[in-house]
Amino acid sequence: MIDKVTEKLDAYNYSLGLFIDLSKAFDTLDHAILIDKLEMYGVRGCALNWFRSYLSNRRHYVDYNGVQSSLLHIRTGVPQRSILGPLLF
Question: Are 38 and 48 spatial neighbours (Cβ–Cβ below 8 Å)?
């Protein structure tokens, strides 16, 4: 990247960089919007119902030193460390 920028600057051209931090993006994806987008792209019937089921009724809790928090429903985000996570994002 440095070589490309230097090359453009040496040729008196402009150079622009855009950096986006997506570190929390997987956690913020709204399930309803995702289902709507899948339907818009042609996913329907059993496949859409499967995705709907995959994303629904998910819960999580925190266990710290043997003390557990209460279960909370997850309404946003895609399951991480799964094959489908990046695809759905």
Answer: yes
Phi, psi (degrees; rounded to nearest 5) at 47: -65, -45
Q: Report the predicted TM-score, pTM, of the whole model to 2 decimal places.
A: 0.60
Angle between helices 31-40 and 45-55 in degrees, nearest 10:
170
CA-wise closest residue to 35 among 23, 18, 21, 47: 47
**Which DSSP string corresponds to 15-64?**
--------TTHHHH-BHHHHHHHHHHTT--HHHHHHHHHHHTTEEE--EE
The whole-number average pLDDT for the span 61-81 is 90
**Six token digits for residue 41:** 């792209």
- Encoded tokens for 75: 């309404």
SS3 79: coil
CA distance 84 to 29: 14
